[in-house]
Write a structure and sequence with these properties.
single chain; alpha/beta; nine-stranded mixed beta sheet; five-stranded mixed beta sheet; 28% helix; Cytidine_deaminase-like
Length: 367
């Protein structure tokens, strides 16, 4: 049974893994801490970028750099060590060859190409135990775990609104509904996402840049613009060189005014790009987490497609009384059809409230 020292090490490993959110896809974020038999830390590491060393290997390297021998040590890992050779070798075998005597992991690897590490370790005589702080570790890896089991990216819809649910005033003005503190927090969400998605309405109304600012070392997400008829101006801020951009259009859109811009053409229905087709295409590109920052119409389209998996709302202590609502056109006609949510977090951000919620159906599945 895991010890209190191992639980403490697991919390440290979870914190290490979180440092790479938004940087490892299509791989998970993983942290690892190595302990000697007395519970002292020998080394630690985390997976920093796809294609680079995994957490276990980085922890072994860190121990070596500190001058510590690891034979007979315990490895505390947030995810079951992988059991396959891709761009890097199998971590289970690396631990065996290093002489690790015990492995404690939080979450079993659901990826059919990588699972089986625990069995490989056990067959080599390494004591293994799974499930330590599994819920905490899974929350830190929620997008990747979701995408592996669903075959599409996890979508977080972010919106800002007044207390009466308005995303803009009657004259269309919306800058700024929420505080500078909330806007800075949105950059954290962008930094943790693989892609940020907006529609042409938001593009023309606000000319957003959508790049991460104010977070040192952040990996810029892919900026995705849904623009069926390619009405985007070539001088739009989202086309600058601050981050990569993908413009998604219908099959017949004229994109000659966008030389050098990556364009993805997808089939349309009723003049709109299909949300399932979009998410499938992003998944094929290695995108595992999407931050939806579009306006109420695009948010409604994602909701109607059953593709809103997380909701993060920033509520400002203000009232407008008129103006567009935060959500529109979601295909909900009665109170009985309402998408019910479980609120998982309420935090004060400056003068505003940040609420995070997940659909009740998803909460039941996760539990």
């Amino acid at each position: 049974m895991a010890t209190a020292t191992e639980a403490e090490a697991m919390r440290r490993a979870i914190a290490l893994a979180a440092r790479a959110l938004g940087a490892t896809s299509p791989n998970p974020v993983v942290g690892c801490v190595l302990l000697d038999p007395a519970g002292r830390v020998l080394g630690e590491g985390f997976h920093q970028r796809a294609g680079q060393a995994h957490a276990e290997v980085n922890a072994l390297r860190d121990a070596a750099a500190r001058g510590h021998a690891v034979r007979g040590a315990t490895a505390v890992v947030t995810l079951e060590p992988c059991n396959h050779t891709g761009r890097t070798g199998p971590c289970a075998q690396a631990l065996i060859e290093a002489g690790i005597a015990r492995v404690v992991y939080a979450v079993a690897d659901p990826d059919p190409t990588a699972t089986g590490g625990a069995a490989t370790l056990a067959a080599a005589g390494v004591a293994t135990e799974g499930g330590l702080l599994a819920e905490e570790a899974a929350e830190g890896n929620a997008a990747w775990l979701f995408s592996v089991t669903r075959g599409r990216p996890q979508v977080r819809w972010k919106y800002a609104a007044t207390l009466d649910g308005r995303s803009a005033a009657a004259d269309g003005s919306s800058r700024w509904i929420t505080s500078a503190a909330s806007r800075a927090d949105v950059h954290r969400l962008r930094a943790e996402a693989d892609a940020v998605v907006v529609g042409s309405g938001t593009l023309h109304a606000d000319d957003p840049q959508l790049a991460v600012r104010g977070i040192e070392g952040a990996v810029q997400p892919l900026r995705v613009v849904l623009d069926t008829r390619a009405t985007i101006r070539p001088d739009a801020r989202v086309l600058d060189d601050a981050a990569p951009t993908l413009v998604v259009t219908g099959p017949d859109a004229d994109t000659r005014h966008l030389p050098g811009t990556e364009v993805l053409r997808l089939p349309t229905r009723d003049g709109r790009v299909g949300i399932p087709e979009l998410l499938a295409a992003l998944y094929e590109r290695g995108v595992r987490s999407v931050l939806l920052e579009g306006g109420p119409v695009l948010a409604g389209a994602f909701l109607a497609a059953g593709a809103v998996d997380r909701v993060t709302g920033y509520l400002a202590p203000a009232l407008l009384g008129a103006g567009p609502a935060a959500l529109a056109g979601a295909g909900i006609g009665s109170i009985g059809e309402a998408l019910r949510l479980d609120i998982t977090e309420v935090t004060r951000i400056g003068p505003d409230l940040r609420l995070t919620a997940i659909p009740k159906s998803q909460a039941i599945e996760e539990n």
